[in-house]
Amino acid sequence: MLPQKNHSAVFSGPKNFEIKDLPIPKEENGKVLLKTLSCAVCGYDVRVFNEGHKKVRPPIVLGHEICAKTLNTVNLPNKQIIPEDKRVIVSPLIPCLNCHHCSAGCFNSCNNLNEIGSSINGGFADYLDIPQNNILINGIIPIENNIHDDEASLIEPLSCCLNAHLNFNIPIRDEFVIIIGDGPIGLIHLQISKLHGAKTIVVGKIPSRLNEAKLIGADMVLLNNDPEESIKSIWDQTYKKGGKLIIVATSNPEAVDLALKVAGKNSLISIFAGISRNKIVRIDPNLLHYNQITLSGSFSSTPNVMKKAMDMVHQQKINLRRLITHRFSLDEIDKAFMITEGCNGLRSIINSF
Ligand SMILES: [Zn+2]
Ligand SMILES: [Zn+2]
Predict the structure, then answer these.
(1) Which strand (E) or helix (H) includes residue 108?
(2) Is 147 found in the same domain as 19?
(3) Distance, CA 141 to ligand 2 centroid (Å)?
(4) How many folded domains does the chain comprise?
(5) Most buried among 106, 126, 149, 191, using CB within 10 Å?
(6) Residue 21 has pLDDT above 90, yes or no
(7) Dist. CA 68–CA 89, nearest whole Å
(8) Are residues 32 and 139 in the same domain?
(9) How far apart are the CA of 44 and the centre of ligand 1, in A?
(10) In angstroms, what is the span from residue 1 Cα to ligand 1's centroid?
């Protein structure tokens, strides 16, 4: 028997959560109801909480890094049958399935995209319902047994990082990869770059996080107190080559300027993180032109890439567990958001509802 109420943290406008018991969503119109087990707090959630976002219309339940379990058997279009009571991860994408990007399978580029935890209620609640268009792209994926619930919730951000790397199209073996941002996302990019045999430099502002980057195996970490000093140091450390790949994994717009100034010839800069609202960055186009620098971006992921990300965790090629530093109940969500905003530790997880 399902309980009658869905204990939820409702985002009701900037800087405001209301802990409420909502009705349990109904399994109708092809929707699938899941019981949430863990949901990680993303930097995006904190930006939405503080500033709002054009995709988000409160009141809404945020949370898109989700580990949940099925309440009934689910039949997926890929012929996979997920039994009742099976743990799953959830792609946040609800694509329209009509636009040309959807036709090409690029569901994260859908022209009419809805997203769980942004435009549709997400994982900071006891239960969540998954719309049919997510099921139609096989958006719920069973979790391998050796992966813990909290770790599983971080497969979503891992898959976003992996999606970026799959699109880079430049070899990075023995090349310098510069990761600007020492948060959980930067540390995931660090792990993927190391797997590809790159020489890695992590630039950040939090000594404890840079220390973690060192422990993960960064070849160099740089505390960025003075950007001019950092730029000089990177050119020295890379023997005047600069970075081959520069990943901007922070929402601080100044990082884009730093990326342009440490990019080597024939390099690629990836804007991975969303930048705070209304922040415009000026760039010198001649830096791109004369140095043949590619400026690119990447957003979200697809269920296929999420499966690849799950395999990497299953095979212990990527360690997500070490990125989890705090765990809270749903009633303590304010605390989890404060810790994330204050860059204390790495990822905070909501895992009791
Ligand atoms: Zn996220
Ligand atoms: Zn579409």
Answers:
(1) none
(2) yes
(3) 21
(4) 2
(5) 191
(6) yes
(7) 6
(8) yes
(9) 6
(10) 32
Distance 157 CA to ligand 1 centre (A): 5
Tell me the CA–centroid distance for residue 120 and ligand 1, in Å: 15
In a domain, 60, yes or no: yes
Name which of 232, 204, 227, 224 is nearest 216 in CA terms.
204
Distance CA 346, CA 208 (A): 10
Which pLDDT score, from 0 to 100, does residue 75 have? 96
Cβ proximity of 191 and 175 under 8 Å: no
Same domain flag for 288 and 264: yes
pLDDT at residue 277 tops 80: no
Residue 40 lies in a domain: yes
Mean pLDDT across 241-270: 96
Q: Which residues have CB less than 5 Å away from ligand 2 (the ion)?
A: 95-96, 99, 102, 110
> Coil, strand, or helix at residue 245?
strand
pLDDT 10s digits, 311-339: 999 999 999 999 999 999 999 999 999 99
**How far does the centroid of ligand 1 lie from the alpha carbon of residue 291, in Å?**
32
Q: Are residues 148 and 214 in the same domain?
A: no
Q: Are residues 27 and 148 in the same domain?
A: yes
228 C-alpha vs ligand 1 centroid, how far in Å?
31
Ligand 2 centre to CA of 109 (Å) is: 7
Residues 284 and 187 in one domain: yes
Residue 234: which of 267, 259, 197, 266 has the closest Cα? 259
Beta carbons of 136 and 97 less than 8 angstroms apart = yes
Predicted local confidence at residue 255, as pLDDT:
95
> Token digits for 185?
């996302």
Domain assignment of residue 138, given as a range: 5-154+320-352
